[in-house]
Design goal:
- The chain has one domain: Class II aldolase/adducin N-terminal domain (L-fuculose-1-phosphate Aldolase).
- Helices cover about 35% and strands about 15% of the residues.
- The chain is built from eight helices and ten strands.
- It has an eight-stranded mixed beta sheet, with helices on both faces. Strands 9-10 form a two-stranded antiparallel ribbon.
- Strand 3 and strand 4 form a beta hairpin.
- Helix 3 packs parallel to helix 6 and helix 4 packs across helix 7.
- The mean pLDDT is about 95.
- Bound molecules: zinc ion (ZN).
């Protein structure tokens, strides 16, 4: 069996991005991707040994129960129990990221959930806050069970819930339908936590500040984001793409142009 080079490369690219964007540290983190019946996962000590500059050749491939297919199974990241247990329990999940982003960790280490207040966290994650699980020995099976329990609870509350949780004094676990989604979730949660912390630091003592959410958006509000939007009023005079004087009239993107 041959390794899918694109998948291995995508894991390396995401690893580098996580470190460059300060979404993880040199101490740890790990990334995996499911491709059919195979799991692609990074080596142990990718941060401390390689400063997150890892090669696609180092990515290990196994089956869903960590039986090796390509590479040395003994070199797989220590957080494998959580990664594999997530895949075994959620058939729609094809990527898992574990990382150590500072701002969500500030919340987790105060045993606080992270409310979704930033624009994108409200759009993509919604009303469910990012919860912390109990303090747990890293890399343990009990950690895997607690992460999966938290994710199942989220899905019970909301059938398409984003699967994200924090571990106090440790890090973040995120599962996505693909690697891109998982990475974007990490970034969104980090930015949301950062916004909350900075806002409090800078303005909590300012009597003019208002730290409440003034407008609660509904799903219907957010759905309008995808509507086609005209950017000028019918009757607006302008020079079109062919250099002709034109009067703008309502444009329908689904109607084929005669030009
Ligand atoms: Zn960790």
């Amino acid at each position: 069996m041959k390794k899918n080079k694109k998948i291995a490369e995508s894991i390396c690219k995401v690893a580098k991005l996580l470190y460059e964007k300060e979404l993880t540290d040199l101490a740890g983190g790990n990334i995996s991707v499911r491709d059919g019946n195979l799991i692609y996962i990074n080596e142990v000590m990718s941060g401390p040994k390689y400063y997150w500059s890892i090669s696609p050749d180092s990515i290990i491939v196994t089956d869903l129960c960590k039986i090796p297919v390509i590479g040395d199974v003994n070199l797989i990241t220590r957080e494998a129990p959580t990664h594999y247990m997530i895949y075994q329990n959620f058939s729609d999940i094809n990527a898992v990221i574990h990382c150590h982003p500072l701002y969500p960790l500030v919340f987790a280490s105060a045993h606080m959930n992270i409310p979704n207040v930033s624009e994108m966290s409200r759009v993509m994650i919604g009303e469910q806050p990012i919860e912390f699980i109990e303090e747990t020995v890293p890399s343990s099976k009990i950690q895997a069970k607690r992460v999966v329990e938290n994710f199942k609870k989220r899905r019970k509350e909301k059938k398409d819930a984003a699967l994200i949780c924090t571990v106090p004094f440790h890090g973040l676990f995120v599962a996505g339908r693909n690697l891109n989604e998982a990475l974007v979730y990490v970034d969104i949660v980090n930015n949301c936590a950062k916004l909350l912390i900075y806002r409090k630091l800078m303005f909590a003592d300012n009597p003019d500040s208002d730290l409440s959410i003034r407008k609660k958006f509904t799903k219907e509000d957010f759905d309008t984001m995808n509507d086609f939007k005209e950017v000028c009023e019918t009757g607006y005079k302008y020079i079109n793409a062919f250099g002709e004087e034109t009067i703008y009239k309502r444009y329908n993107p689904n109607k084929k142009s005669s030009k």
